[in-house]
Amino acid sequence: MQVRELESDPLFNSGRGSALTAKGTEEMEASILDGNKRMCSAVSGVTTVKNPISLSRLVMEKSPHSYLAFSGGEDFGWGTGSKLHPGTACAAAKDSQPQMNGLPISLYEPETVGCVVVDSEGRCAAATSTGGLMNKMTGRIGDSPIIGAGTYSCDLCGVSCTGEGEAIIRRTLAREVAAVMEYKGLNLQQEVDFVIKEKLDQGFAGLIAGSKNG
Ligand code: ASP
């Protein structure tokens, strides 16, 4: 998946370009879900790993759990001896970004990054990575690492969301797309339109989705 590349680009709100907390610290989050194998994992509160999505994948493949947060996730990752690179959110980019109340703001309104893949046999997977909302409270967990809210994949489709995490969590937006496909039998465009227009109450959100038919 290309999520690692996007995390390494400071233009996006993930990995190196992550939005910071109100205390000016970084708490990155990521999740990944293999809809075919029914395997998933998520991490939150990541501060020392360059690619949170790689840590999330490690949790999925090498731990017995599906969600590890803060130091627990990082201790696990470093302890596996797997190839993880150290890094924090955009130390270099922070210096070159405009500041507001001592906190960096971006001119580009960067967004969370996500990726949905469908292979030639219709197997779907999805991944999402974010720094979260700018100036969020420390300890705040958004939608991106929550399976079914910001990320979802099953045998029908893969979905990755961006936007206001609290609104996305309230409606379990990513899972909603799959549920509409499953129970209403709509095509992908119809179901995404339905979910965004009818299900999202307040707040802003967008998503990418791919169906097993591509
Ligand atoms: N959805 C993310 C969050 O609320 C933010 C974003 O999409 O940029 O944590």
From TrEMBL:
<protein>
    <recommendedName>
        <fullName>beta-aspartyl-peptidase</fullName>
        <ecNumber>3.4.19.5</ecNumber>
    </recommendedName>
</protein>
<feature type="binding site">
    <location>
        <begin position="162"/>
        <end position="165"/>
    </location>
    <ligand>
        <name>substrate</name>
    </ligand>
</feature>
<keyword id="KW-0645">Protease</keyword>
<feature type="site" description="Cleavage; by autolysis">
    <location>
        <begin position="111"/>
        <end position="112"/>
    </location>
</feature>
<feature type="binding site">
    <location>
        <begin position="140"/>
        <end position="143"/>
    </location>
    <ligand>
        <name>substrate</name>
    </ligand>
</feature>
<dbReference type="Pfam" id="PF01112">
    <property type="entry name" value="Asparaginase_2"/>
</dbReference>
<dbReference type="InterPro" id="IPR000246">
    <property type="entry name" value="Peptidase_T2"/>
</dbReference>
<dbReference type="InterPro" id="IPR029055">
    <property type="entry name" value="Ntn_hydrolases_N"/>
</dbReference>
<comment type="subunit">
    <text>Heterotetramer of two alpha and two beta chains arranged as a dimer of alpha/beta heterodimers.</text>
</comment>
<dbReference type="GO" id="GO:0006508">
    <property type="term" value="P:proteolysis"/>
</dbReference>
<keyword id="KW-0378">Hydrolase</keyword>
<dbReference type="GO" id="GO:0004067">
    <property type="term" value="F:asparaginase activity"/>
</dbReference>
<dbReference type="GO" id="GO:0008798">
    <property type="term" value="F:beta-aspartyl-peptidase activity"/>
</dbReference>
<keyword id="KW-0068">Autocatalytic cleavage</keyword>
<feature type="active site" description="Nucleophile">
    <location>
        <position position="112"/>
    </location>
</feature>
<feature type="region of interest" description="Disordered">
    <location>
        <begin position="1"/>
        <end position="20"/>
    </location>
</feature>
